[in-house]
Design goal:
306 residues; alpha/beta; Quinone Oxidoreductase, Chain A, domain 1; Rossmann fold; 2 domains; six-stranded parallel beta sheet; three-stranded antiparallel beta sheet; 12 helices
Amino acid sequence: KGDVAAVTDGRVLGPEGVGVVTEVGPDCTRVAVGDRVIVSCISKCGTCDYCRAGLPSHCQTLGGIGWVFGHLIDGTQAEYVRVPFADNGLIRLPEGVSAEQGTMLSDILPTGYEIGVRYGQVAQGDVVAVVGAGPIGLAAIMTAAPSGASRTIAVDGNAFRLAQAKDFGATDTIDISATDDVVGELKRLSRDGLGVDVAIEAVGVPATFATCLDSIRPGGRVANVGVHGVPVSFPIERDWINNITITTGLVNATTAPQLLDKISAGEIDPAKFVTHRFSFDEVLEAYDTFANAADRQALKVVMTKE
């Protein structure tokens, strides 16, 4: 439900994908023709200050933004994709890991994990609220318990997504259509009624950001993952005294190899994100499904070009 003004009409969309390398440039040494690879949503030169600091999402060689696919250059929803800095932006897909599992490592799973769970500093025993149980929220839910969360509470208004949240690892769910006091419910489910340790915002609208701010305990953390298109309010007159932390960020996708190891070890299975599959020839049907995700019970929609 967010908004990105820089994506202009006519842009080929798609920051995620898995494919086979068909051609490499003369400076490409880490991947070869025939390699089965994950296309990272973040492109990076690997040499600028931000890349070396672990923040390739702000790669200066690319103008200060590592997210270029489907944003500033044409993306992955095409028969062929040009990958800048391919040595740094492609990850070999090992045997035993499916293309669908690998595709979830392009963007969605690292986003929920890095910007939600890791930026939220989820620690052993924490009570974590994930506000928004769409794919990004589910990615945070999937990785919260392995990071130490003792309780993970999914907040959404869609029954299908709340059911999926339980399958992805949520211990509790709150249906916003069934209560007038979401914040009160979250505090009731916290350890002592003071609020949750971490609230992960995974929608990108003012109301859900406010829910996160209102539900954390003193010393708590709000990890904003949602893409916001309008301003939000911050009640600093209330919260200046509460020692809270608010983080925001664009995924760096630097955890993809770590998450790949977890898949190979059977600890997580991101293939469960995929609910609908289409060929490239069915692109209009795929987009219609995506646009009506709640009604179609869709999480991630995958298009394949054989």
